[in-house]
Write a structure and sequence with these properties.
Distance between the termini: 52 Å
Strand content: 5-15%
Number of domains: 3
Number of helices: 18
Largest sheet: 4 strands, parallel
Helix content: 40-55%
Shape: globular
Radius of gyration: 20 Å
Structural class: alpha/beta
Oligomer: single chain
Length: about 375
């Protein structure tokens, strides 16, 4: 990872701080230290040696969701505060200073390859007949909280006649990076890159925006650059629908849906159109747009592993986001963290793949 950019941190630290209007963390806590510029000031003082590191300061610097909402009102082109804060936590924070809440999850990651502990056994891969077209990477969050996602994805691939294999359910390394263990992140990246290269697949398919970002942006920096394209499920399944290899039909009891844009898909990957076009391919389905939505979406509180390390605060941010969404028959998103977090207070949330599966297989189920 590149060195911390102290000049950009200082720009943020002395800014009038309008970005706090778009920071879900600051909207919840309303403390100076929780604002984007407040965290930048603390990071800058730590860089200059005017403050001494301790776990309390690390916790404050870790209260960034990585949603890039602050960039919507930032006057400094090229400043990605979430990236700079991550660099401070991973490159500058002394060894031995840890985020206490993350320790058990890091231990799980080292022992089981997943922050959630022992992994459930997944569905078997289709028997290899030459090189598979798709290598499907099952993210650890869906594996732990919504394991049926894997089976639904494989059923859709099978229905479209796509040859596939499933990558062993190992974490991409993103949580280890977020919690400051770059050695573990690089180790996971190296192991995954070797498995991916050995598969001979034409593309890597993922339904997690953080996995996508880690594969495409972090792996090259960690010396494990992948030699095949990494495609999100919305984009890939949309192409299968366009080719008429998948034919969605109406979904019983769901006529109007609200779509929540995950932050990374919307602001980092610029993937706002594919999910909407895929939703619009389902007959008789009316899309109710969230406000704000698209690239101006607001984080649900699930970014940067907040659900695990700051669960109560994460849930309060989710409730705030839910209050902004219009009523509909179903709330749909395309991120395992968003799906999990937006279920605060019992709300039912569907992943886009779950809704597509209902549309494709409903007649068969009936």
């Amino acid at each position: 990872m590149a060195a911390v950019n102290g000049e950009r941190l200082l720009d943020c630290a002395i800014c009038p701080n309008m970005c706090r209007c778009e920071c879900p963390v600051d909207q919840e806590w309303r403390r100076e230290a929780s604002s984007p510029a407040g965290k930048a000031r603390l990071a800058h003082l730590l860089l200059e040696g005017r403050l001494e590191w301790d776990s309390a300061l690390l916790e404050v610097l870790s209260t960034c969701l990585g949603c890039r909402g602050c960039q919507l009102l930032c006057p400094f082109p090229g400043l990605d505060l979430s990236r700079e804060l991550l660099r401070v936590r991973t490159e500058v924070c002394p060894a031995g200073i840890t985020l206490p809440a993350a320790v058990p999850y890091l231990n799980n990651l080292k022992k089981f390859g997943s922050p959630y502990g022992a992994r459930r056994s997944g569905s078997a891969s289709r028997e290899r007949q030459g090189r598979p077209e798709v290598l499907y990477f099952v993210n650890c969050t869906a594996q732990a909280n919504n394991p049926r996602m894997q089976q639904l994805t494989l059923e859709l691939l099978g229905a479209a006649g796509v040859s596939y294999e499933v990558l062993d359910q190992y974490c991409c390394g993103y949580p280890a990076q977020i919690w400051g263990d770059l050695d573990l992140a690089r180790q996971l990246a190296e192991e995954n890159a070797a498995r991916i290269a050995g598969s001979g697949a034409s593309l890597l398919l993922t339904d997690c925006p953080e996995c996508w970002h880690t594969f495409t942006e972090c792996y090259p920096c960690w010396g494990s650059e992948l030699e095949l394209p990494v495609i999100d499920t919305a984009t890939y399944f949309l192409e299968l629908v366009r080719q008429k290899r998948l034919k969605p039909g109406p979904v019983k009891e769901i006529g109007r849906i609200t779509y929540h844009d995950p932050c990374i898909w919307a602001r980092v990957a610029d993937k706002c159109e594919a999910p909407r076009e895929l939703l619009q391919s389902i007959p008789a389905l009316e899309l109710e747009e969230a406000r704000p939505g698209g690239q101006e979406t607001r984080c649900c509180g699930g970014g940067a592993m907040f659900q695990l390390t700051f669960p109560e605060r994460s849930a309060r941010i989710a409730r705030r986001r839910l209050s902004e969404l219009p009523p509909s028959d179903a709330l749909v998103t395309s991120c395992p963290f968003c799906r999990e977090n937006l279920q605060a207070d019992g709300a039912e949330v569907l992943d886009l793949v779950e809704l597509l599966s209902r549309a494709v297989f409903q007649e068969k189920d009936e």
